[in-house]
Amino acid sequence: MAKDIILLGAPGAGKGTQGALLAEALGLPKIATGDILREAVRQGTELGREAKRFMDAGELVPDDVILGLVRLALALPNAAQGAIFDGFPRTAAQAEAVDRIQAELGRRLSAVILFEVPDEVIVDRMTGRRTDPESGAVYHIRYNPPPPAVRERVIQRADDTEETVRRRLVVYREMTKPLIARYRSAAVPIHRVDGTGDIEAVHAAIMEQVTG
Ligand code: AMP
Predict the structure, then answer these.
(1) b or e along 53-69 (b: 16 or more beta carbons within 10 Å of the residue's beta carbon)?
(2) What does the DSSP 8-state code read for residue 8?
């Protein structure tokens, strides 16, 4: 049976970076709804156009849109053994639907990893975040600077301005944080991870929790 892992935590807590390392270590795909939406925006599809106004404002994209994407991604052959969920579920309705989709597809949740990072660290991280549009690699202007060959072409996400980041933190607190209680009462281990350490230290802590 496919076993899935949910990465839960505020935007900028490190889910994307750590999810990629964890996916690689476990040989599972990472499914990131934010990445799927950004790709749709880049390609200018109808989905992208609809999603962009929510994303740029720091608001959540409607649940039915997200759940359609999740359903498609989980049906792909590469997710047959399990997957790392990055950025979903983000609302109670999404969590309920993800439960249902997993049951339908013969999957189950094996763990939830909860990233703990103070708001001020998050604002600092996100406003300094830059992405290489060619490779998708994520850097930080101070903590993980892009190499010289890439430095000229990195871009800032439209939703990584301070104002939008603060709105996204409010949305996280209101809509997503309550999911912690939901998973705490479910029969699934929740691993709390201090997400303030450097990338390697946080990865090591996650691996110890997941495989230990
Ligand atoms: P992320 O890259 O996960 O920070 O997502 C970027 C933006 O995409 C979010 O601020 C939302 O506007 C949208 N988004 C991504 N995942 C979801 C989701 N599960 N539910 C609603 N909106 C989402």
Answers:
(1) eebeebebbebebbbeb
(2) E
Query: Which residue has tokens 């991870």?
Result: 193
Which atom of ligand 1 is least distant from the CA of 55? 12
Q: What residue ranges line ligand 1, CB within 6 angstroms? A: 11, 33-34, 37, 54-55, 58-61, 66, 87-88, 90, 94, 159, 168
Q: What are phi and psi of 56, to 5 degrees?
A: -65, -25
The pLDDT tens digits for 113-139 are 999 999 999 999 999 999 999 998 889
Long-range contacts of 124-127 (CB under 8 A, 24+ apart): 125/12, 126/11, 126/12, 126/160, 126/165, 127/160, 127/161, 127/162, 127/165
Report the length, in residues, of the chain: 212
Q: Is the pTM of this model over 0.90?
A: yes
Please report how many Cα atoms fall inside a 13 Å half-sphere around the Cα of residue 36, on the Cβ side: 20
* Whole-number Å distance between alpha carbons of 32 and 88: 7
- Catalytic option among 108, 157, 166, 182: 157
Question: Which one, of 137, 114, 117, lies nearest residue 125 by Cα?
Answer: 117
Ligand 1 centroid – CA 59 distance (Å) = 8
Nearest CA to ligand 1 atom 9: 55
Average pLDDT (69-95) is 97
Token reading at 89: 């579920």
Q: CA-CA distance, 72 to 47, in Å (whole number)?
A: 14
